Amino acid sequence: MPTLPEAFCARMREQLGEREFADYLAAMERQPRRALRVNLLKTTAQDFSAQADFSLTPTGILPESFFFEDDVAIGRHPLHAAGLCYVQEPAAQAPAALSGASLGMAVLDLCAAPGGKTTQLAAMMQNTGLLVANEPVRNRAEILAGNIERLGVTNALVTCMRPDALALSLGACFDVAMVDAPCSGEGMFRKDETAVREWSEEHVLACAARQEQILESASLLLKPGGRLVYSTCTFSREENEGAIERFLSAHADFSLAESRRMYPHSSVGEGQFMAVLVRAGTGESSAALHAPAGERIPAFEAFWRETFTIDPPKAMLLPDGRVLIPPQLLPRELRGLHIVRAGVLAGEVKNGRFTPDHALVLAFPAASFRQTVPLETTELTRFLAGETVACNAALSGWCPATAQGHPIGWGKAVDGVLKNHIPKGLRIR
Hints:
A hairpin with a 6-residue loop joins β2 and β3. Among the domains are: 217 residues, Rossmann fold (3-Layer(aba) Sandwich); 65 residues, Nuclear Transport Factor 2, Chain: A. The chain contains 14 helices and 23 strands. The chain is an alpha+beta fold. The strands form five sheets. An eight-stranded mixed sheet has the order 10-11-9-8-5-6-7-16, with helices on both faces. Strands 19-21-22-23-20 form a five-stranded mixed sheet.
């Protein structure tokens, strides 16, 4: 257990009482367990359990939530590369489950990186409607976009903006707003020694002030009748109940529906606070959002007919030649938005030919493709490392390599050889 700050211990002793504080300290001595959430966009909990070659134990948080052993290199596993799971602390899986996000909604994840709650929301929405995933820090926004891509999320608009700027650009157009606020991280002390070193009472108060600003922006983005889910991974009252009380005192049109606390000694996983706020009124479809029209892109359409068995989706051609498959809904006005990724980057048209992007192969199940190359053991390891592998000589052109029936990357079949098109930065060596 890391050495906990004395001032923090005094706070927790007062908050919990002597007996429960002792239980908390005992829990902090225990080794935290690693957990994952099965990606329901691509598989089921039952099928994932059957395909995994490592032991899984249900966490009890969600049916698709499991503990796995520390010796499993999950980030190098083919099922992870195929986007079938997301490594996520079990308590962190609880807030999104309270959101009520569902089919066809407009949903906002205001502090989204690295993407755990975003991808969970996308699964709840079944890739319909619009999911705006915002992260103000550029490099974190890129990580967010990468996780969205790997898990096959197609309804997301990834933005990189300050919450107040996003509110100014979009206004009140969301049915659900998720605010997993930056915090002092007290609930992660068992796993994160950096959070322990950075803790101070001054830091707690600074976080509380920042959270107040973020909540204010979230309120401007939520439609009447919408749900605002606020969560932190900290224990301080100033950042949790205090933040909610201050917000409600300034927003008479909001009410508290429920709130929960999770501690490592009394629940699964680490620390978590969550609260659901509801805005009064009845939400209506916003004129700020619309269903984007597709356009004819002959090179993309020809590729699609050759490669897929399903009807082509709506697509948009950007001035630089990139082709996007947009979400079902988009903001009517895109000016002023700093967009990192919109929907699925399908590929690029250059000199009249279409070349597919890695995101496209991960966005559709194997059954959608006319031809695939199933790989096992040695060949699978080689392909994930970026090497060419042998394939059926009858195959020709673009086709996905698959692991246990799930696409992991594009290959191009030529004369019995599958040339590798996994991006260099995503290869597993």
